[in-house]
Specification:
The protein is mostly helical and 239 residues long. The chain folds into 2 domains: 93 residues, Orthogonal Bundle (Endonuclease Iii, domain 2); 100 residues, Endonuclease III, domain 1. 51% of the residues lie in helices and 0% in strands. It is built from 12 helices and no strands. Helix 2 packs antiparallel against helix 3 and helix 2 runs antiparallel to helix 8. The longest helix is centred in the N-terminal third of the chain and has 14 residues. The radius of gyration is 19 Å and the shape is elongated. The two termini are 25 Å apart.
């Protein structure tokens, strides 16, 4: 996603001169968002079912630079056939056959190395600490948080352009693209959504789907947003 524009373009609003003090989404706001998610969320995405650290690692690896609907077609067979790092290394040819259509060939060696490290250094288990996860080839901040939240059921923020876009619009406070991996990003999410220890996997799924379906980068559909009443962006547009 491009950096936030200084004008009211692509669904963005220029920041106020001073950072605004805001009240995070209330429990009632979360109830409204969860109700919207239950009725409209992307529950058909196969990696959201029967989640584990390994299945979420597979999902993160496959989804990198690949459309979700493309991954969804092959993911169920992949997660069924490859139940751990050893099964990948024992059947590399099958892995290559199943993932070639995802544009994966350039990433084969990196993923096989990741599996070797898990097998030799972590006794075949997915490491649970962020530092260890991010030491694995191809695993960055976002994937680490996603694996820990969705695979290990840890309450964590998912810090990416989608959740930050919602947070910026709710609060009216904006950070630059280069600050997305800084502590300022987590502070912005906390301003909008409250303490990180209350951000469950289901709440993160709801936020990600809200960003994909309603609070989009261009032309957000503010009128039907479940967080309509607490959004500074909506107020500035006089919707």
């Amino acid at each position: 996603m491009k950096d936030f524009d200084s004008n009211r373009t692509n669904g963005q609003i220029a920041p106020d001169e001073n950072t605004q003090a805001v009240v995070p989404v209330s429990e009632n706001g979360w109830i409204k968002l969860q109700k919207w998610y239950q009725e409209n969320g992307r529950h058909n995405l196969p990696w959201r079912k029967n989640r584990s650290a390994w299945s979420m690692l597979l999902a993160e690896v496959l989804l990198r630079r690949t459309r979700a609907d493309t991954v969804a077609r092959v993911y169920p067979e992949i997660v069924q056939k490859f139940t751990d790092a050893k099964s990948v290394l024992d059947h590399k040819d099958k892995w290559i056959q199943l993932t070639s259509e995802l544009g994966f060939p350039s990433r084969f060696d990196q993923f096989f190395l990741l599996c070797e490290i898990i097998l030799t250094e972590y006794d075949g288990k997915i490491p649970v600490e962020s530092k260890e996860l991010m030491s694995l080839p191809g695993i960055g901040h976002y994937s680490s948080d996603a694996i820990r939240c969705f695979g290990l059921n840890e309450n964590r923020f998912i810090v990416d352009t989608n959740t930050l876009r919602i947070a910026s619009r709710i609060t009216g406070n904006i950070i630059r693209q280069e600050q997305h991996r800084s502590t300022m990003a987590r502070k912005l999410l906390e301003q909008a959504f409250g303490p990180e220890n209350k951000i469950t996997a289901e709440r993160n799924f709801a936020l990600l789907d809200l960003a994909a379906l309603i609070c989009t980068n261009s032309n957000p559909d503010c009128a039907v947003c479940p967080l309509f009443g607490v959004c500074e962006y909506r107020k500035k547009l006089n919707i």
